[in-house]
Amino acid sequence: MLIASALGATVAGVVIGLAVFVLVVGFLRTSIKVVQQGCVGVVKRFGQFRTIHQPGLHLLMPFADRMEKVDIREFPRTGDQQAVITKDNVSLMVSATIFCQVTDVKLALFEVNDFGLAIDQMARTALRAVFGELTLDQSLSERDTINSKMQEHMTEATLKWGVRLNRIEILDITPPTNVLQAMSEQKEAEQHKRAAILKSEGEQQAAINSAEGRKQAAILEAEGQKSAVILGAEAQKQALELRADGEKRATELRGEGEAAALTAIDQATIKTNTLAIMQLRALQSVATSPNSKVVVPYEAAGLVGAAQVLVDAMKNAGGPDGGQTLPPPPSA
């Protein structure tokens, strides 16, 4: 009996010790909480919002307080592909990534049941609305416009949930197979068209350049001929001017010589015999010229008389003047 009593007391002590240990562990687990950096802890006491704890070690009231941790860092939410219909009735498969951040923890927990799910559903609705206002070409080329319009659609609703949308990025837009094939054929046709246009423009430019070259060559040749003609004319003009100046100068000199001779004659006294000799020599020159006609001076008889006077004078002097023999006088 004593042994049984001792064993019963020992078992009871062990049970009590285990109960106390469990109570202590439960107390520690429910009263000591650690909040990691980048998160906050929302404390609820008997289900009612109590306070918000920042990162660190915190003590709670055992069995009364409960803490729910909320990540306040920016996080991306990537949705699966969704079918949308464009303005020109083309079905597309679209997927987008939303970068959001919890700014008001209390609103995020108590204004919406699951703010992550709500943002995902809101993004699906915004995708349908935005792509429904755009054509296929706009949907494929204006991604920035799509991102901004989606953010406008979702911003007002998410602010009520204490969530801020930082940006939205369209990841992939996949048209149907037949549309892809048609787009490929269209692109190929555009490339052929562009090649033909570039070829024709090149040929046109080459023709223009060739014509411009011929034009410039003709202009340069004409200018060369014009310059040559002008230079030739100027050379002839200068030659004529120089010749005229020479003739003018010769005439002036001849006139000056004749004037000097006449002046000398006027100043000197010509003897009768000397004048007769000069007249006879002039007549001799006329008679010996190769002309077919001979002009006999009007004063021919006077010349004969002058010759006779000269002969008589020479006879009286005993010979010709200066030892020269005079030519016989020409007959009238």
Descriptive overview:
- This protein is α+β, with helices and mostly antiparallel strands and 332 residues long.
- Among the domains are: 26-73, no CATH class; 75-175, Tetrahydropterin Synthase, Chain A (2-Layer Sandwich); 269-287 and 296-332, no CATH class.
- 61% of the residues lie in helices and 18% in strands.
- The chain contains eight helices and nine strands.
- The strands form three sheets. Strands 6, 7, 8 and 9 form a four-stranded antiparallel beta sheet that branches. The chain has a three-stranded antiparallel beta sheet with strand order 3-2-5, with no helix packed on it.
- Strand 7 (82-85) and strand 8 form a beta hairpin.
- The chain is rod-shaped and about 220 Å long.
- Mean pLDDT is 79; it is low at 319-326.
Number of strands: 9
CATH architecture of the domain at 75-175: 2-Layer Sandwich
Under CATH at level 1, the class of the domain at 75-175 stands as Alpha Beta
Gap from first CA to last CA? 217 Å
Summed over residues and divided by their number, the pLDDT gives a mean of 79
- Poorly predicted parts: 319-326
Query: Rg to the nearest angstrom?
Result: 68 Å
Helix-strand category = alpha+beta
Helix percent reads 55-70%
**SS strand fraction:** 15-25%
Shape: rod-shaped
H/E topology pattern: HEEEEEEEEHHHHEHHH
CATH-assigned homologous superfamily of the domain at 75-175: Band 7 domain
